[in-house]
Specification:
- This protein is an all-alpha fold.
- It has 2 domains: 1-32; 35-84, no CATH class.
- 70% of the residues lie in helices and 0% in strands.
- It is built from 4 helices and no strands.
- It has helices spanning 4-27, 42-49, 53-64, 68-82.
- Helix 3 packs across helix 4.
């Protein structure tokens, strides 16, 4: 089982890595351009842009018939890939 200490350590590592990536983008003068897939539902993307993750999950479930856990994972993947 994963402890709170493990989760906190992983969060700290993610924050550090995000900072390093941001630094590299700035130093190399590179702009991050999200990769949008043709299968990404525009309604889901719009909900994510507005910070409405639960609504995005609801739309995903309605469109695909997926369960809650599967829909949450899929929406989080879209969110991460698009950098929203």
């Amino acid at each position: 089982m994963v402890s709170e200490v493990d989760v906190a350590a992983l969060r700290a590592r993610v924050i550090k890595l995000e900072g390093m990536v941001k630094f590299l983008y700035e130093k190399l003068n590179i702009e991050f351009i999200p990769e949008i897939h043709l299968t990404d539902d525009p309604t889901i993307v719009e909900h994510l842009k507005q910070g409405q993750v639960i609504e995005a999950i609801k739309v995903y479930r309605q469109n695909t018939g997926a369960g809650l856990a599967e829909a949450k994972t899929a929406v989080e993947e879209i969110q991460g890939r698009l950098g929203i």
